[in-house]
Amino acid sequence: MSIYVVGHKIPDSDSICGAIALAYLKNQIGEPAIATRLGEPSPETQFILDKFDFEAPELKLSYAGEQVYIVDHSEVTQAPDDIAEATIVGIVDHHKLGDLTTSTPLECWIRPVGCSNTVIKMMYDFYNVEIPKDIAGIMMCAILSDTVIFKSPTCTTADIRCVEALAEIAGIEDFKAVGMEMFNVKSDVKGAKPRELVMRDFKDFNMNDNLIGIGQLEVVDLSVFDDIKADLEADIAALKEEGNRHTVMLLLTDIMKEGSELLVVSDDADLSKKAYKIASENGRSWLPGVLSRKKQVVPPLQEVFA
Q1: Rounded to 5 degrees, what angle do the CA atoms 294, 80, 189 make?
Q2: Which fold has domain 194-305?
Q3: How many CB atoms lie within 10 A of CB 303?
Q4: Quick one: pLDDT band at residue 93, thresholds 50, 70, 90?
Q5: To the nearest whole number, what is the mean pLDDT of the chain?
Q6: Which residues of 230-252 are buried (b: 16+ CB within 10 A; e: fewer)?
């Protein structure tokens, strides 16, 4: 019986590339595994897959009765809808420990690093398994994406060393140039509908029984949003009502200026001030130095809701 390796809902590059890389590793050590996904690849992820000649993993939404290895999260809200009916055999992640629980022992590889693929590289090293050139390439790109080409406060020495090692395996001389190619793809919003943009990198969090949705769009120049910002605000307001959420936030992150404009619709008009000490004006605020949802946005919110 094969293990299904799957990331979170609305998968990002770490989630999909990690599923591919981990499934390959498991197969190499005699544990049959199949990489799957819970949604469509983002434009950035598709760029990575195309660059290294990969097909996207199988789209699989139901896992009842299956063995599952979770990648890049440990939250019930981000897992398959029927995860309670599956057997979780492992988790590899770089976020806070979430609320997934199991009835049987499991393997856990959780490290405070910038990307799940950094942890997966550690797993390859532990099992002494050679990483194929193409898999090294997608792992490298996932780490560059999650660490914002090493600019994110989540980035560690381990992430940098893993990228350098993976780039050498993949035959990539200028990995930062590849990273900028990826972020230029992310910055292309022409023709995209507001809902598509809001949901490109969107996660729900349960904070003391309050559902909080947080999306993030990372670009090289915030001016790409000038003509559509009002449409994005209208869409996050609609998304809040549709999902019965307490709050929906959208981070518009400028990787060159190293900060984020926060758009927020919430039942608490003072939430931004409470969490980030910066009041919002008409639902907008500038958060200097904020690049990471995981490390800089979610923890202060959890303190508010605690």
Answers
A1: 55
A2: Diaminopimelate Epimerase; Chain A, domain 1 (3.10.310)
A3: 11
A4: very high
A5: 97
A6: eebbebbeebbeeeebbbbbbbb
CA dist., res. 121 & res. 114, Å (int): 12
Instruction: Please state, in angstroms and rounded to a whole number, the distance separating the CA atoms of residues 288 and 244.
Output: 30
Q: What is the CATH number of domain 3-184?
A: 3.90.1640.10
Residue 124 neighbours by CB under 8 Å, 6+ apart: 25, 130, 131
Q: Are strands 107-110 and 87-93 parallel, antiparallel or unpaired?
A: parallel
Report which residue type is found at 142: A
pLDDT digits (tens, 9 = 90+) for 158-196: 999 999 999 999 999 999 999 999 999 999 998 899 999
Take residue 97 and report the two structure tokens written for it: 């420990």
Q: Tell me the pLDDT tens digit for each residue of 208-235.
A: 999 999 999 999 999 999 999 999 999 9
Strands 87-93, 67-71: parallel, antiparallel or unpaired by DSSP? parallel
Annotated domain spans of the chain? 3-184, 194-305
* Residue 281 dihedral angles phi and psi, to the nearest 5°: -115, 115
pLDDT at 99 over 90: yes
Tokens of 107: 């393997």
- Reported as a pLDDT band with limits 50, 70 and 90, residue 128 is very high
pLDDT of residue 1: 87
Backbone angles phi, psi at 268, to 5 degrees: -115, 105
